[in-house]
């Protein structure tokens, strides 16, 4: 991790383009920009750890990250992945508590960090900011409710089919460096590699996909959507 030099204008632009700061005056944005800095993270480097003090709100300028939990035995469960433009670590920023989750870079990434104390100060001084904060937090809550629903009501094969239908082809059958492994698929689904392997065989027997040389090719989109138990578009 390295802290980089950044122009004040670039900091203000990053804040202007973020949903949490919509409607703030130029003066307020300029004040927040004084407590905003840019950091670079290498692939697989930790951005923050669960239980540590919150550094602030993270805005992904370039790259991608994973938000994940670790079981007592070290098994990883990926809660969400984010790409360029996304914002994360809102909860401890606003409730002044510790980080609730681990975050690591999936590739070399650049991340803006807006200090939590500065954001809370701005929220107190600019009540109009509260509406944007509430809207963004409720969108995050909807995402978590959807995740709970999938874990509760759908079997691994259904959830795997849904994930495969959403992933870009290069993450399934592209070059090895950018292709997801079965362990990574398992982490995203909250299960283990052996269960994912069985589910892949079920999908392959149905004709939805083909698995060859660690690559997954979608053969029948409609059948895959049937497995996913979602409307076919």
- SS-based class: alpha+beta
Number of strands: 11
N/C terminus separation: 42 Å
Quickly count the helices: 10
Cα gyration radius (Å): 20 Å
Name the strands of the widest sheet in spatial order.
1-2-9-4-7
Q: Outline, from the CA principal axes?
A: elongated
Q: How much helical structure, as a percent, in the residues? A: 40-55%
- What kind of oligomer do you see? single chain
Stretches where pLDDT falls below 50 for ≥5 residues? none
Mean pLDDT: 91
- The helix/strand series, from N terminus to C terminus, equals EHHEEEEEEHEEHHHHHHEEH
Largest sheet: 5 strands, antiparallel
Query: What proportion of the residues form beta strands (DSSP E)?
Result: 15-25%
Topology record:
Elements: E1 2-4, H1 8-16, H2 26-33, E2 36-41, E3 46-48, E4 56-62, E5 64-70, E6 76-83, E7 87-88, H3 90-95, E8 102-105, E9 109-115, H4 116-125, H5 129-153, H6 156-166, H7 170-173, H8 182-189, H9 193-205, E10 209-212, E11 215-218, H10 221-228
Antiparallel strand pairs: 1-2, 2-9, 3-8, 4-7, 4-9, 5-6, 5-8, 10-11
Helix pairs in contact: 1-2, 6-9, 6-10, 8-9
């Amino acid at each position: 991790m390295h802290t980089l030099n950044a122009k004040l204008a670039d900091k203000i632009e990053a804040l202007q383009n973020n949903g949490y700061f919509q409607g703030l005056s130029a003066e307020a944005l300029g004040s927040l920009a004084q407590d905003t800095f840019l950091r670079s993270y290498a692939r697989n480097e930790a951005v923050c750890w669960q239980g540590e003090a919150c550094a602030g709100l993270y805005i992904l300028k370039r790259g991608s990250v994973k938000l994940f939990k670790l079981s007592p035995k070290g098994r990883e469960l990926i809660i969400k992945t984010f790409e360029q433009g996304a914002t994360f670590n809102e909860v401890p920023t606003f409730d002044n508590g510790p980080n609730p989750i681990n975050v690591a870079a999936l590739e070399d990434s650049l991340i803006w960090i807006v200090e939590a104390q500065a954001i809370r100060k701005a929220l107190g001084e600019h009540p109009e900011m509260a509406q944007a904060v509430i809207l963004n937090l409720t969108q995050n809550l909807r995402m978590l409710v959807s995740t709970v629903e999938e874990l509760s009501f759908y079997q691994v094969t259904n959830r795997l089919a849904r994930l495969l239908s959403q992933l870009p082809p290069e993450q399934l059958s592209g070059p090895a460096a950018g292709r997801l492994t079965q362990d990574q698929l398992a982490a995203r689904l909250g299960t283990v590699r052996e269960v994912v392997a069985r589910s892949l065989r079920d999908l392959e027997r149905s004709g939805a996909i083909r698995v060859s040389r660690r690559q997954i090719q979608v053969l029948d989109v409609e059948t895959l959507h049937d497995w996913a138990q979602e409307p076919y578009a």
